[in-house]
Design a protein that fits this description.
- This protein has one domain (about 30-55, about 65-230): Rossmann fold (3-Layer(aba) Sandwich).
- The protein is about 35% helix and about 25% strand.
- Strands 6-7-8-3-9-10 form a 6-stranded mixed β-sheet, with helices on both faces. A 4-stranded antiparallel β-sheet has the order 2-1-4-5, covered by helices on one side.
- Helix 3 packs across helix 4 and helix 3 (about 95-105) runs parallel beside helix 5 (about 140-150).
- It has 8 helices and 10 strands.
- The two termini are about 30 Å apart.
- The structure holds adenosine-5'-triphosphate (ATP) and magnesium ion.
- Adenosine-5'-triphosphate binds near residues 35, 42, 43 and 195.
């Protein structure tokens, strides 16, 4: 469903961020991407939504090669990927409910079904009752839930959650992680970028680790190698 094939990316005046990266994600996967700050996790997300293009290599989503995509098809690809931004990007002067409504409207969701969908999404992320609050009135964990709510409201098949537990305490991080697992078990492919070691140690899903532009660890590959040895 998602293939990164020999992908390299550097920014102008910068070092190589991703150097010949290969990985694939199948429908229903829970992929955790780790790496220290600056390792290129957000860059992978931005490449995925065609906010950036690779210098070399190809990114293929459901058979569509993003390096050859026609501009009219870019919104279709973006609709497939809900993006939970590292810095939330909820609209500050709109309530949480309004933020979700706007996300649904942008996705072209049937307007008659929007109120029910907002309620359903708020319930899923545990924010029902907070819909009339503004982002500035939420706690960090609630804000993260709101950001996830906005990303998944229109039922994209894929969720890219960028550092969803960034500044949260251990307990709240775990709650957010459990929410992502629930979203995954409901059928959404989840890609989570994090440097949170507590979460990595839970060994849930598949884990790839980025270092100096390379994938230095891929738990899927390790499992395949273990099988080969057997
Ligand atoms: N627009 C840009 N122009 C130049 N360099 C950039 C740009 N965006 C990112 N970089 C650089 O690319 C590298 C990778 O950035 P990226 O945001 O992908 O890292 P990250 O793994 O998400 O880090 P963090 O854990 O801090 O979020 C960093 O060294 C960063 O400074
Ligand atoms: Mg980042």
């Amino acid at each position: 469903m998602i293939d990164f094939i020999h992908v390299s990316k550097s920014y102008p005046n910068g070092d190589v961020v991703l150097d010949d990266i290969d990985f694939s994600v199948s429908p229903g996967d829970f992929l955790v991407i780790t790496g220290k700050s600056g390792a290129g996790k957000t860059t992978i997300g931005r490449l995925l939504i065609h906010d950036l293009v690779p210098d070399k290599g190809r990114i293929v989503i459901d058979g569509e090669d993003l390096t050859k995509i026609k501009s009219k098809n870019i919104p279709l690809i973006r609709r497939k990927i809900g993006f939970g931004f590292q810095d939330f990007r909820v609209i500050p002067d709109k309530t949480i409910g309004e933020n979700i409504v706007i996300a649904l409207e942008i996705a072209g969701y049937d307007s008659k079904k929007i109120p029910e969908k907002v309620k359903h999404t708020l319930t899923l992320v545990g924010l029902l009752g907070k819909e009339n609050l503004f982002p500035g009135q939420l706690s960090g964990g609630e804000l993260q839930r709101a950001s996830i709510a906005r990303a998944i409201a229109a039922d994209p098949p894929i969720l890219f959650a960028d550092e969803p537990t960034g500044n949260l305490d251990k307990e709240t991080s775990l709650e957010i992680f459990k929410l992502l697992q629930k979203i995954n078990s409901d059928g959404t492919t989840v890609i989570m970028a994090t440097h949170d070691v507590t979460l990595i140690n839970l060994k849930v899903g598949r884990h790839i680790h980025l270092e100096k532009g390379k994938i230095v660890k891929d738990s899927k590959e390790s499992k395949e190698k273990e099988k080969e040895k057997e």
